[in-house]
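tokens incoming
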């Protein structure tokens, strides 16, 4: 029996969230085909997945620009067709009414426990008001830098105690959001490389609450290609000597990642996947902000490899795309799949969803073909 499901977007007015919401409204109205939506192609019992009509959207954000204005900007940049924007503008305004003010460490007064309680209350109120079977919380906020490990990050009881101290800030915003989601009884998806739910204390909280979670860092472009191509070199016994990459991007993501500290987590996430596939090789990677690119993202990779008799060869590729258009259908897919997992009573890290992530939780498998098989087998058993 189908049940209505909530999608609560942390960062609900950002590019990825706005694109996902616009796409969901367009899918409901039959204005677009579900291109990029993997759940539409999986061989599985589709009755366990919420339909597009059954996904109700809310969220948090610290910015106040209305969703329809944000979508209009994305339409002007070429990401959203103007005809689609016009058709769903009223729907965007309705969703905007469901968005609430998020947690900002600068403006917040009081303890982190107070902040988390307010966020959790927003989610539970949304769930109750819409009579939803469950709410899936998806983090699509801007990337945060890594944080130094504290004893509280390792023990949920220590963490809970420290959150009540208004003089301490032991969690970054992404982890405050994850804590709020879990205390509200909601499955959690981390589509970013931010600390989020990755702290042992929070994964222990998820275990205690019996909740599933998935992450981390959505795999949409350059890393997607790397996880396809790198196993090829290994399988053909070709020696990769170096793998260099440059990312050029604009928009809010480009501005955020222009800060080396902010970019650190993203770079580490990308590097871990490549290292697991081909071992320890020279692999410099740069991220540059190019405002003129707006919502486009361009990645250029140069792979130097060695063949028989020491012959030196190379592969170069360029990926030029709209990252939000690649990410948005995955956000909808993850909402549907995690909802089905929660309905079945699954809990802990959903390692079978590694297919969607650069830095998958619960598994060290990065080979795309193997991830695809894992996902297909798992989905067929839901």
């Amino acid at each position: 029996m189908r049940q209505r499901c909530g999608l609560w977007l942390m960062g609900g007015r950002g590019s990825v969230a706005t694109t996902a919401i616009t796409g969901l409204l367009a899918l409901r109205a039959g204005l677009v085909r579900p291109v990029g939506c993997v759940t539409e192609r999986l061989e599985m019992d589709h009755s366990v997945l919420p339909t597009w009509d059954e996904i109700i959207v809310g969220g948090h954000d610290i910015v106040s620009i209305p969703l329809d204005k944000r979508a209009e900007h994305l339409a002007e940049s070429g990401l959203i067709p103007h005809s689609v924007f016009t058709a769903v503008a009223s729907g965007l305004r309705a969703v905007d009414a469901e968005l609430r003010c998020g947690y900002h460490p600068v403006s917040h007064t009081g303890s982190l426990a107070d902040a988390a309680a307010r966020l959790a209350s927003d989610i539970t109120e949304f769930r109750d008001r819409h009579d939803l079977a469950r709410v899936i919380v998806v983090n699509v906020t801007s990337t945060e830098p890594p944080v130094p490990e504290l004893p509280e990050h390792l023990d949920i009881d220590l963490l809970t105690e420290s959150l009540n101290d208004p003089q301490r800030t032991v969690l970054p915003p992404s982890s405050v959001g994850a804590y709020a989601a879990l205390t509200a009884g909601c499955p959690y998806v981390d589509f970013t490389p931010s600390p989020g739910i990755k702290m042992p204390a929070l994964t222990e909280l998820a275990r205690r609450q019996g909740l599933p979670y998935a992450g981390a860092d959505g795999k949409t472009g350059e890393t997607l290609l790397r996880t396809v191509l790198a196993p090829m070199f290994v399988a053909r016994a070709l020696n990769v000597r170096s793998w260099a990459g440059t990312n050029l991007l604009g928009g809010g993501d480009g501005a955020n990642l222009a800060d080396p500290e902010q970019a650190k987590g993203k770079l580490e996430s990308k590097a871990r996947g490549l290292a697991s596939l081909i071992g320890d090789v020279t692999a410099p990677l740069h991220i540059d902000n190019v405002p003129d690119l707006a919502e486009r993202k361009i990645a250029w990779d140069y792979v130097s490899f060695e063949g028989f008799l020491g012959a030196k060869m190379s592969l170069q590729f360029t990926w030029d795309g709209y990252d939000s258009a690649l990410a948005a259908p995955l956000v909808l897919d993850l909402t549907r799949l995690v909802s089905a997992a929660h309905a079945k009573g699954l809990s802990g890290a959903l390692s079978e969803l590694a297919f969607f992530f650069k830095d998958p939780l619960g598994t060290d498998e990065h080979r795309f073909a193997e991830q695809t098989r894992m996902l297909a087998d798992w989905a067929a058993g839901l």
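note: The longest strand covers residues 239-249.
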